[in-house]
Amino acid sequence: MKNILTKIALILSASAFLTACGFVGAKDKNSSDNTEQVSRQNDEQSDSQDDSDIDSDNGSNVKIVPNYWKNSVNQGFSDYEISNADYQGLSIICNEAAGENDEHKVMYNNNLKLDSEWVDISEGDYGLLINDNDVVYVPESTNYRLAAGDWIELTSLIEEATYIEVYKDGKSIATFTPKNLRVVEGLSDSCEPLMYKDFS
User: What DSSP string runs through 154-196?
Assistant: First the structure.
């Protein structure tokens, strides 16, 4: 009995020694390391693919038909948008039923292909030249009489505009030559100043 216990103790000691030296369990450890390395490589490839997809979405997939108005409606807003061959965009956003706290806006985008930010041109040194005759500025609000008059003038001119030039700091930065005026027909009525709208 004493010999058996001695042998068991020796076996356990030898096993502990071999494990500590890396002879036992090394294969399992290497296998685990290899599995972890392959998993890490797969994750990196997946991340790289995701980045590639994002780069692709940020430009090459932008589809436009230059100088044609398009209209979309979403959550009480009607958006009239036009782009040109240089991937610049102009958008008239009308609050038709979104509530009295959201103003109409005219937005400008310098590069749709690069997913540039849309800028509210009522808040900067912007102006619009329409049909080579009329210079208009976008009011920040349409809730008082003078600004409401400016907005009516702007939307009425847009309805018939075959030439729109955007100016910033006194310099021309974009030109649009709308072809399909049917889309913006009646804009001055559907996009009337907020001071005349009844949201009740």
Answer: HHHHHHH-S-EEEEETTEEEEEE----GGGGTTHHHHT--GGG
